[in-house]
Design goal:
Structural class: mainly alpha
Order of helices and strands: HHHHHHHHHHHHHHH
Number of strands: 0
Shape: globular
């Protein structure tokens, strides 16, 4: 599909908000009260891993199709696509280029979130520390800007990260190129075996270690648990895309029934993750989520008819909100420790939306200037 699926864009925003609400634990802790989103945040990260894997798989399969067309003398247009050469000749390089290009789009928002977090650290750390100690104490910012904390170059945890939610982006940099390489290099084995069995094995490994796959900052004998979790979920995303293709090609299920399954599956997953974090129940909900995402991506259900600028914009704004909400929570708890919980959440969301809109406008302005400069040079 060349156009965006607006229902998927709406889901991006919904699950981003689930993560934002999950981190409202900052505000709850200052008031020594419980909050209703303790487990939900883990579920939302699973959604983004699976969706990222599915869209990456879609990209390489379509690129592979263009490569096949290129080899035919009857298609001159396909011959001009130089990027597809990498797919056949250097699949790992192709996978790295795709991943880096994907992260480059995130970088401006991630950088702003990390810088805000560093400012918070500089202001809030022990007043007994000197300027030099404060400055050097935040050197993890370099690793975070490079998206490499989850490689093990720094201690990983809620307190050591400047902007903890960005562990997700670090896992993408580590895991996605490897998965795409396998999907390209070993297509048949990957589609029919690896993307099905290996995620289950990796999830079972985490469940047996920690009782759940929601852990991300603990180092196992192999890698950080978040890397293992990301590898499994990204492969499940590849499985979701392959399943979506089969659904799109089938005419045996009516759109109404498919839509009903889709909505019920999302509802079941959300309910399960917000009420039960038992490892195997959680695993079942993830598999249900994979099928729901596959139905959405197939564009065969009625949700594919959802259209409108509002939905596409909500999807676009979810990325900067994800990158900014952590430091915003920290600033609110620092300067407004007695703020009412509900009011605090509303303020955080409002500030994040305002900052996100400003950043998006600035980036669009810079992009327009760059295009204008290139035109003038020509």
């Amino acid at each position: 599909m060349k156009t965006k699926n607006h229902f998927i864009e709406l889901l991006r925003f919904v699950f981003c908000m689930v993560i934002v609400f999950h981190h409202s634990g900052f505000l709850a802790a200052t008031q020594e009260r419980n909050f209703p989103f303790k487990s939900a945040g883990f579920f939302a990260v699973e959604f983004f891993f699976i969706l990222t894997g599915a869209l990456a798989m879609k990209h390489i399969r379509e690129a592979n199709g263009r490569e096949n067309l290129k080899s035919s003398d009857s298609n001159e247009e396909a011959k001009t696509n130089k990027n597809t050469n990498l797919l056949a000749e250097a699949p790992m390089k192709y996978s790295l280029v795709y991943t880096i290009n994907k992260l480059k789009r995130v970088f401006p928002y991630a950088m702003c979130g990390i810088i805000l977090s560093y400012i918070w650290y500089f202001i809030s750390c022990d007043s007994g520390l000197g300027f030099k100690d404060k400055l050097l104490g935040g050197l993890n910012i370099v690793y975070e800007l490079l998206f490499i904390p989850m490689t093990g170059v720094m201690k990983v945890g809620l307190e050591s990260f400047m902007n903890a939610p960005l562990w997700y982006l670090s896992v993408i940099l580590i895991a996605l190129p490897l998965i795409l390489y396998m999907a390209i290099r070993f297509k048949d084995s990957f589609d029919n075996y690896i993307s099905i069995i290996v995620p289950l094995l990796l999830h079972a490994y985490l469940i047996n270690l920690y009782g759940s796959i929601g852990n991300w900052g603990t180092y196992t004998t192999v890698a950080y648990s978040g890397v293992i979790r990301g590898l499994a979920d990204l492969m499940l995303g590849c499985l979701a895309y392959n399943l979506s293709v089969k659904i799109a090609e089938s005419n045996k299920i009516s759109r109404a029934i498919l839509t009903l399954f889709e909505i019920v599956m999302y509802a079941f997953s959300i309910y399960t993750f917000t009420t039960n974090v038992d490892g195997y129940v959680y695993e079942f909900a993830i598999l249900i989520l994979v099928v729901a995402i596959a139905i959405s991506l197939s564009a065969k259900s009625m949700t594919a008819n959802l259209k409108g600028y509002v939905f596409s914009h909500l999807g676009a704004i979810s990325l900067p909100i994800y990158c900014l909400h952590w430091p915003v929570y920290r600033f609110i708890t620092l300067y407004c420790p007695n703020i009412d919980y509900v009011t605090g959440v509303i303020v955080v969301i409002a500030v994040c939306v305002a900052l996100s809109e400003i950043l998006m406008i600035l980036l669009k302005g810079f992009a327009a200037l760059k295009i204008k400069e290139n035109v003038n040079k020509q």
